[in-house]
TrEMBL record:
PANTHER family recorded: 30S 40S RIBOSOMAL PROTEIN (PTHR11831), SMALL RIBOSOMAL SUBUNIT PROTEIN US4M (PTHR11831:SF4)
GO cellular component term of the entry, any: small ribosomal subunit
GO annotation terms (biological process): ribosomal small subunit biogenesis; translation
Pfam families listed in its UniProt record: Ribosomal_S4, S4
The Small ribosomal subunit protein uS4 N-terminal domain, residue ranges: 3-92
SUPFAM superfamilies the record matches: Alpha-L RNA-binding motif
Family classification: Belongs to the universal ribosomal protein uS4 family.
PROSITE patterns linked to this entry: S4 (PS50889)
The protein's name in its UniProt record: Small ribosomal subunit protein uS4
Protein task: With S5 and S12 plays an important role in translational accuracy. One of the primary rRNA binding proteins, it binds directly to 16S rRNA where it nucleates assembly of the body of the 30S subunit.
Native source species: Gimesia alba
Subunit structure: Part of the 30S ribosomal subunit. Contacts protein S5. The interaction surface between S4 and S5 is involved in control of translational fidelity.
InterPro entries listed in its UniProt record: Ribosomal_uS4, Ribosomal_uS4_bac-type, Ribosomal_uS4_N, S4_RNA-bd, S4_RNA-bd_sf
Amino acid sequence: MGRYTGPKGRVNRRLGALVFEDAGATRALDQRNLPPGMSQRRRKASNYGLALIEKQKIKFYYGLRERQLRRYFDKARRIKGNTGEALLILCEQRLDNVVCRAGFAQTRPQARQGIVHSHFQLNGVTVNKPSIWVKPGDVITVRNRPNLKKLYGELVESGRPGCAWITLDKKALAANVVTAPTFEDVSLPVDVGQVVALISR
């Protein structure tokens, strides 16, 4: 799956979860909590179908391709502890997710776009790869350009609430990753055990 550019409200309705968080997609799920299409009844899915839905939640939520997700899974499997929890923690440490969770963007696709356009610096170095893994002690800043300072200053003031493992200096527009995220910090409602079982087949 490449980067998804289709109707986001349909994805939310198909998966029955708030995967895309922008206003239109949220409104679509609130108004019609049924899958899109002619049928008005949600058919009972098989065990494979249920697991596939859970996997698609992770892929759409974090903007991952299949190969990326499997690469993360292979890395998570080598980490001591619960593989599913380690997988989601690795996803949380992606740069685009951290930019979004810090409050620089309202959604992950918006954060991804800003990173690709080189709007941010990681530890003083301009970056353009949303998939970079961020570690405790890393500092993310907005590049020192008046138009970017104005844009992200407004987003920070009206943005989403922050999280415990990231501190944000609104005046300097700098986000400091204090600690690594834990499984409790993951905001996506997903049965990751089914995903692990599916990928392990």
